[in-house]
């Protein structure tokens, strides 16, 4: 079952698709349930939700005004809304995630495709426990709680779950060259990369320092594709992160730009065979 965050995003996406079938504006739709245009916009973006009673009223309002002849299944929208506001999702050690990052964790869990470009460190989905602890030590946060470490390591299960997404990583050479902890930590980390890259759903590429494409991609980003719950197109988000904040982009222009950048990075990176050979050599270099 999709996470509550993704259920809200899916519902919002489907409601927007349904409203567009009526030709109504956000303001006109909002008047039907006594909501402002701003609230309706947040609803369609998955930021806020509706009680079942109000959602029924809205969908039935749309049902009477759709321009095409396709039926509107009111109960289906109501079922999609169930669990969208589930509480306790971020309790326990999962509460250790920064609030701005929690949506990214949910997108990871529900994505069918993930394209990840990383610049300086090994991506979170690929980090070993020793590497994680070394990162916290280097950052001066040796006292990081075990909950935070457990939360970081739990994310790796996404890659081996029953419905694991297809994940492609493009890692700057810096991710391998920049030592975290000790040579032994890096050896173990690279060994894990070699192991996980053998999975059918995982593709790994190294972007060499000599690549010209790297000059246009100085910051990491992750592109998520979430299967649509109905007839609408899949949800797509690009997540970018700074030191203490994250940003989620879903407008068509941003998605298109990042897709083009991703294509250039992938085209400039080593193929999977050369990447594997590179990692084997890098692992042995840390034992010298």
Automatic annotation (TrEMBL):
Domain of life the protein comes from:
Bacteria
Q: Which residues does the UniProt record annotate as the domain HTH cro/C1-type?
A: 15-69
Please provide an example of a Pfam family that matches this protein in its UniProt record.
Answer: DUF5753
Which InterPro entries does the record match to this protein? Cro/C1-type_HTH, DUF5753, Lambda_DNA-bd_dom_sf
Taxonomic source organism:
Actinoalloteichus caeruleus DSM 43889
Q: What is this protein called?
A: Helix-turn-helix domain-containing protein
């Amino acid at each position: 079952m999709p996470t509550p965050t993704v259920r809200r995003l899916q519902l919002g996406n489907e409601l927007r698709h349904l409203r567009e079938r009526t030709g109504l504006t956000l303001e006109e739709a909002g008047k039907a349930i006594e909501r402002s245009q701003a609230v309706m916009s947040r609803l369609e973006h998955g930021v806020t939700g509706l009680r079942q009673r109000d959602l029924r009223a809205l969908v039935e309002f749309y049902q009477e005004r759709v321009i095409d002849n396709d039926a509107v299944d009111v109960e289906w929208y109501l079922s999609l809304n169930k669990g969208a506001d589930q509480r306790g999702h971020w309790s326990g050690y999962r509460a250790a995630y920064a609030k701005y990052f929690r949506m990214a964790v949910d997108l990871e869990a529900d994505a069918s495709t993930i394209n990840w470009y990383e610049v300086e460190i090994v991506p979170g989905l690929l980090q070993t426990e020793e590497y994680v602890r070394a990162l916290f030590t280097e950052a001066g946060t040796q006292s990081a709680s075990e909950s935070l470490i457990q939360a970081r390591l739990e994310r790796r299960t996404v890659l081996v779950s029953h419905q694991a997404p297809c994940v492609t990583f493009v890692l700057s050479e810096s991710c391998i060259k920049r030592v975290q902890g000790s040579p032994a930590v890096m050896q173990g980390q690279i060994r894990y990369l070699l192991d996980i890259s053998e999975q059918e759903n995982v593709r790994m590429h190294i972007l060499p320092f000599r690549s010209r494409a790297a000059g246009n991609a100085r910051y990491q980003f992750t592109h998520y594709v979430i299967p649509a719950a109905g007839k609408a197109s899949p949800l797509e988000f690009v997540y970018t992160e700074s030191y203490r904040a994250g940003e989620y982009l879903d407008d068509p222009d941003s998605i298109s730009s990042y897709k083009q950048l991703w294509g250039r990075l992938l085209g400039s990176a080593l193929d999977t065979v050369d990447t594997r050979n590179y990692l084997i050599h890098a692992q042995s270099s840390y034992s010298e």
